[in-house]
Amino acid sequence: MLSDRLPWLLLLAYGAIAFGEGLVAALNAGVGTELSRAAITLAGVLWVVHGLRRGQAWAWWLTVGGATVFLVSVVTALVLAASLQVQPALTLSVYAKSGVLLAALVVLLPGDTRRRYLAGRHRTD
Question: Which domain holds residue 19?
């Protein structure tokens, strides 16, 4: 069912954006550090998606907590830029990742979904 897979797909989209960001940075700068960070981020995303697929509470908490922290930092940057009356220096990929993570929160926070992950019922398949 698509609604069950939507959080996984959104997180995979986030991982793809992060990996693409690192790839572009590495190609432009000729330094692999950003690409390494992007690969580590993608590996972390795949690990969390695996946990979500198995219905594990830790994966729900990591997804919700990580998305919340990321979105709070983006909103803080936007508010600070507005208060200083300057143009925010956020890239298009930051806005794309924000949209994907916001959508993941909207899917994961309602009661039905939250209960599915936090009810203590763990699938082993």
Answer: 2-117
